[in-house]
Specification:
The structure is a homodimer of 201-residue chains. Chain A has 201 residues and is mostly helical. Chain A has helices at 21-43, 46-53, 57-64, 67-74, 92-105, 109-117, 121-143, 149-169, 173-176, 180-196. In chain A, helix 1 packs parallel to helix 6. The longest helix of chain A has 23 residues, at 21-43. The structure holds a DNA duplex (30 and 30 nucleotides). Chains A, B: Residues 1-23 are annotated as: Disordered. Chains A, B: Residues 22-82 form the HTH tetR-type domain. Chains A, B: This is TetR family transcriptional regulator.
Chain lengths: 201, 201
DNA sequence: ACCATAGGTCAACACCTGTTGACCTCCAAG
DNA sequence: CTTGGAGGTCAACAGGTGTTGACCTATGGT
């Protein structure tokens, strides 16, 4: 009998079969991502995550050791950046903004990283690594990899994270309701400038 | 005797005088802003705030009722926007970015609002009100107050909050270390465009 | 038929949280 | 000198947290 009756979003096995360890691990990870994304690091409790996964809190500890390690596992994320060099140079900004919007909307992980990263150092470090370790190199490839690459990646971060913050986290009315195409039309040129314009100083 | 020996940042009265109620209220408010700014809403505890103020946690309740009301009091904030209409139209963006940087650096309140707003609805609402109720009207004054005013305010929010997030909260290396002037040079034109360019769609 | 084992539950721990109410203590006004 | 109130402390509450270890139970291989 299940006594932890939160919203049961766990994937139960098809027949009356018992759950595999890997299935449980996956169910926990999904539930963890959702809770961390919705509540942030401290308000997402092991108990609520376990309830969502349809198991006992002790199972979470069995599989992931502790809350910190659970978050580390749940916050694994790949930006899946497309190959920029195959794109027309003047569309880089728009395509990047579009890609970010998509990536944000079909995966809870970024939301979890942002909600947690504001008060949790490990999450903040992950977020930094996303831009320094994934976006940075991609930008370097098309600008020649100069020393300003990290700066450009950082600038793109300010605009894209700011967008996500206003649109998905704070739900600032006009930004949250803005159609995708309008967002891209407004922010595309900004990101384009950060990527390709010469240093203004 | 003081048994709550955290870092005592409280303003003690000059002589051996006893503290006034108002002095204590102020000490609590200052400590609260610092803690909320440093730790976010849930990790900033009444106990730690009281310790910083050099008093018993019960005093915090006496003066502010509960944690929620304490935050509401600590999160009171005025952007103190300058009179834009007195500025050259093409410097609006730069001046606004500069003003935000200053406002952010000499007052903990914005940091508290951002750190808390990500997981606390009341704080999020405050943040929305900042842009809708203070920045919005200021923009309306110089663009004629059209229906796109709220949208422009929102766009400015995405860039400025994104900057604050990366520079002050996440401490993204290249952004945190960037000199003020460089930040203004890069972001000024972006904000300028959001303020004065025609809708690109 | 047996039983090791993977999957899972349960009850408790030590600690921390916001919050409360009883109590103490100084000091100025009557 | 008394007294009353403002400023402050203390101990406890009820509930929630991460985490632990003992225990149960189905099931597939021998």
């Amino acid at each position: 009998m299940l006594t932890y009756g939160g919203d049961m979003t766990a994937t139960d096995p098809g027949s009356g079969r018992r759950r595999t360890g890997d299935e449980t691990r996956a169910a926990i990870l999904t539930a963890a991502r959702e809770r961390f994304a919705a509540d942030g690091y401290e308000r997402a409790t092991i108990r609520s995550i376990a309830a969502d996964a349809g198991i006992d809190p002790a199972m979470v500890m069995r599989y992931y050791g502790n809350k910190e390690k659970l978050f580390a596992a749940a916050a694994e994320f790949d930006l899946r950046l497309p190959d920029f060099s195959a794109l027309p140079r003047d569309q880089l900004g728009s395509k990047l903004v579009e890609h970010f919007l998509t990536r944000w909307e079909d995966d809870d992980t970024l939301m979890a990283l942002l909600r947690a990263g504001v008060t949790n150092e490990a999450a903040a470090e992950r977020l930094r690594q996303l831009f320094a370790g994934q976006l940075g190199p991609a930008i370097g490839k098309l600008t020649g990899g100069g020393p300003d690459t990290a700066i450009r990646a950082g600038l793109v971060a300010t605009q894209t994270l700011g967008l996500a913050l206003c649109r998905y986290v704070l739900a600032v009315g006009p930004i949250a309701e803005m159609p995708r195409a309008t967002v891209i039309a407004w922010l595309g040129p900004t990101v384009q400038r950060y990527l390709t314009d010469p240093d203004p100083t």
